[in-house]
Design brief:
This protein has 355 residues and is an alpha/beta fold. It is built from eleven helices and twelve strands. Bound molecules: 3-isopropylmalic acid (IPM) and manganese (II) ion. Residues 86, 90-91, 246, 278 line the site of 3-isopropylmalic acid.
């Protein structure tokens, strides 16, 4: 029997509440599938930072490198200046663990409300492959003459051949494995960001020659936003840089029913990957037991898929689908018809009773 060592980082705000439910579902599925999950919890996040000044101690980072995967709740605390925890913890983990892919499915389940009228589950079913270690997130740049009227703020987008290529290769492979419409769209801005996306486009075209079974396409990022709203059925897999991927996946989350269901994986195919609901710490809902844990449960499901537990992932997906479709009144916090923990119970019960 397999034994998976999972580092659990509940984090800030509603993170701990949703992670508790994800673990409930994970343990229910582990029991069914006869593998073991060993959880090691870490209290990284805003509270610890405010208490001790520590964000991500070197020793903790070294421990994290030894796990099979990481399950993360949310990072961001109202009493901590924006950027400190995001850069010091979330982005630091992505960079240090070289999780160079951020995989974000945009899937509308039947019966879920989408703001797109006349669009249904058959139209909204695609995956965004977001580069996760470079671009504008690399932290390159600086401020000159700070505080003066002549101040200059420079924020550079770093795009390396290696970083772009490994992201594109992942996207082509993923598109092939996903085996749906086998269409890969590069999302960029070749008409303005002529250095960065010239590199992306050239490497994309080069790799495409190796994947003759994949149909390739290109869309500017602004047009991508437009098509995501107007014709989401156009997309199968979208590959893009870090910043554009960040932006279009919030739009993606909204068309799939909201932050309550949007999950993502920070993937290092050769290392330790980290799975998280993409919605953030939602301070205003903290401690109320009303936040939707489905995104965190979906993150756990992606983690199972990543670990190669396909049958367990399938079981979990069926449970998510059933509860979303049949039980929940809405996916929004406070309007689900159930509390956070009740939603977790519904999912776990369904898993436990499944054949
Ligand atoms: C996300 C978040 C993060 C990002 C923030 C919190 C740094 O918005 O995971 O999409 O920009 O990547
Ligand atoms: Mn984001």
């Amino acid at each position: 029997n397999k034994n998976y060592r999972i580092a659990v980082l509940p984090g800030d705000g509603t993170g701990p509440e949703v992670i508790r439910e994800a673990l409930k579902a994970l343990n229910a599925v582990a029991e069914k599938e006869a593998f073991k999950v060993e959880e090691v919890h870490y209290d990284l996040g805003g509270e610890r930072y405010l208490r001790t000044g520590e964000i991500l101690p070197e020793s903790v980072l070294e421990e994290l490198r030894t796990f099979d995967a990481i399950l993360l709740g949310a990072i961001g605390h109202p009493d901590v200046k924006p950027g400190i925890l995001e850069k010091g913890l979330l982005l630091e983990l992505r960079f240090q663990l070289d999780q160079y892919i951020n995989l974000r499915p945009v899937i509308l389940y039947p019966g879920v409300d989408t703001p797109l009228k006349d669009k249904g589950p058959e139209d909204i079913n695609f995956v965004v492959v977001r580069e996760n270690t470079e671009g504008l997130y690399a932290g390159s740049g600086g401020i000159l003459r700070k505080g003066t009227l002549h101040e200059v703020a420079v924020q550079e987008s770093i795009n390396t051949r290696m970083g772009v290529e490994r992201c594109l290769r992942f996207a082509f492979d993923y598109c092939r494995r996903r085996n749906q419409r086998k269409k890969l769209t590069l999302c960029g801005k070749t008409n303005v960001l002529t250095y960065a996306f010239d590199l992306w486009q050239r490497v994309f075209n080069l790799i495409a020659e190796e994947y003759t079974d994949i149909t390739t396409d290109y869309a500017h990022v602004d047009a991508t936003c437009m098509w995501m709203v107007k014709n989401p059925e156009w997309f199968d897999v979208i590959v893009t840089d870090n910043m554009f991927g960040d932006i279009i996946t919030d739009l993606g989350a909204m068309i799939q029913g909201g932050m309550g269901i949007a999950a993502g994986g920070n993937i290092n195919p050769e290392g330790v990957s980290m799975f998280e609901p993409i919605g953030g710490s939602a301070p205003k809902y903290t401690g109320k037991n009303i936040i939707n844990p489905m995104a965190a449960i979906g993150a756990a499901q992606m983690m199972l898929e990543h670990l190669g537990e396909g049958s367990a992932a399938g079981r979990m997906e069926a449970a998510i689908r059933k509860v979303v479709v049949e039980d929940l009144k809405s996916l929004s916090a406070g309007h689900m018809g159930y509390s956070t923990s009740e939603v977790g119970d519904l999912v776990a019960d369904y898993i436990s009773k499944s054949a």
